[in-house]
Amino acid sequence: MLKPLRQGLPPLDPAAVSDAASCALPARYEAVREARRFTRVTLDQWDLDERFDDVCLVVSELVTNALRHALPANIPRTLEQSPPVRLHLMRWTERLVCAVRDPSQESPAASDTDDFSAESGRGLFLVDSFSDSWGWHPLANTLGGKVVWALFRLPAE
Questions:
Q1: Cα–Cα distance between 78 and 141 in angstroms, integer?
Q2: pLDDT tens, 32-49?
Q3: pLDDT tens-digit profile of 69-128?
């Protein structure tokens, strides 16, 4: 069974980031569509179209998990709320990182189901399958919450 990784990003020099983009996502499931659109536009700008399918699938799963599992269920989700979920895309020369920040301190956990025909519960298996590595880490200080990230290796230019 897949166990979540409680660790930070692999060693990457923040000064070497060649491109970065982020967007705030509202607490509505329509935000998954917005995350895919944002990812498409960003990867087009960075000439990374060849990785779009894998990256978009992983972004969709990470955002869906944040919306489904990381937000308090008893709080109404309105348009006026400040967006509790944020998508970050960061590119290094040979790596792309997708990171989703949410307000929960709970670790991401893979479902215990062996039913691969189920319509839900496979998100982290997909993230693990389509990215080169993934993990998560809690946020410190006043931010609170956590970041779940997935890393994709890019072909050398």
A1: 27
A2: 999 999 999 999 999 998
A3: 777 665 555 544 556 899 999 998 889 999 999 888 888 766 665 555 444 556 888 999
Residue 2 has pLDDT above 50, yes or no: no
DSSP letter for 51, please. G
What distance in Å separates the CA atoms of residue 137 and residue 105, rounded to the nearest whole number? Answer: 9
What are the residue ranges of helices labelled H in the chain? 30-45, 52-69, 123-130
Question: For residues 156 and 94, is the Cβ–Cβ distance under 8 A?
Answer: yes
pLDDT in tens, 48-72: 988 999 999 999 999 999 988 777 6
Nearest to 27 by CA among 81, 91, 100: 81
Whether the Cβ atoms of residue 58 and residue 98 lie closer than 8 Å to each other: yes
Q: How far apart are CA 21 and CA 126, in angstroms?
A: 23
- The 3-state secondary structure of 88-151, one letter per residue: EEEECCCEEEEEEEECCCCCCCCCCCCCCCCCCCCHHHHHHHHCCEEEEEECCCCCCCEEEEEE
Q: Are strands 146-153 and 85-91 parallel, antiparallel or unpaired?
A: unpaired
Residue type (1 letter), 148: V
- How many Cβ atoms are within 10 Å of 5's Cβ, its own excluded? 16
